[in-house]
């Protein structure tokens, strides 16, 4: 058996502390050090540094998990990759698409090993949904409807001012996960329309957004994201991924409709017609739940990251996550300009810059 992977964690706030716990519970990983200007010495039972550079200079690490504010992601990741250290970088990969391209180029140049923390892709329900779609279990995909809505506590914004400022907002913090997963499940998006609002919280960043999507397959989609409204609907309430969000069984984040059936995710309820019954609206629909083994994205993500440290291809590469960020940013532009935005044109504009 190989030696445990020595991991440093950069940023020990809300998400970084969870990564510390995941590492502690993993059989083949050791928490070697943490870096955070706010962390007190020895708080995590390992050496503590004020920032990532100090940690990289003093420790011999195999890998670093970066869970610092979004604006620091690219610089810190490049510092780690330059030292030959593998990186699990929290989402979003960067605060904007142009910046993410800098990291994509650095990964290539340095032959770096980097996984982006779109943890939901590691959830067993996602693998099962993807297989069902590929196997044509709902026929041809016609459309999707999705929601992520939860009312964040005031403290989330007052204790952590960057959550109120440009570079955060429900689109970059939350919708980015959903758009990533929809790309993964339904394929690339060709164009977007969007409207946003900040009228409930009145912050610099939006608290609510609605995005319409046209997939390259021809399927259409619509998504509502809000951090100001109470709801039982959304990935975080519908899975046991994060202990901080009470779990409601049989929850729905996405409804996918096809020419011969429908599927909701992550509860994996599949609606279909019995064999021999005409597939039209007069026939009774039956519901069956697809099986999925296991229920945790984060533990699976860490297990996969350890494989990436040892040379495996990442499930979510920098280039892949950068495409997701382009989609979020194209949606923001669509809202700002009241226009339909062509996603390939948006990306080409930046790549040529
Ligand atoms: N995957 C998910 O579901 C998920 C959930 C929440 C947050 N996140 C991501 O995790 C990251 C952190 O978010 P959070 O909610 O934990 O924020 P947070 O503000 O609670 O934590 C950020 C931490 O980074 C520290 N920090 C600031 N400057 C630093 C520096 N130069 N070097 C090292 N540490 C520094 C802060 O002191 C703080 O402890 C963000 O990128 C966010 O998008 C991901």
UniProtKB/TrEMBL annotation:
Q: Does the keyword NAD apply?
A: yes
Q: List, for all copies, the residue spans of the domain called GFO/IDH/MocA-like oxidoreductase.
A: 127-262
Keywords on record: NAD
| Domain (Gfo/Idh/MocA-like oxidoreductase N-terminal): residue spans on this chain | 5-118
Q: Which InterPro entries match?
A: Gfo/Idh/MocA-like_OxRdtase_N (IPR000683), Gfo/Idh/MocA_Oxidoreductases (IPR051450), GFO_IDH_MocA-like_dom (IPR055170), NAD(P)-bd_dom_sf (IPR036291)
GO MF entries: nucleotide binding
Which branch of life, at top level?
A: Bacteria
Q: Indicate what this protein is called per its UniProt record.
A: Gfo/Idh/MocA family oxidoreductase
Q: Origin organism of this chain?
A: Mycetocola zhujimingii
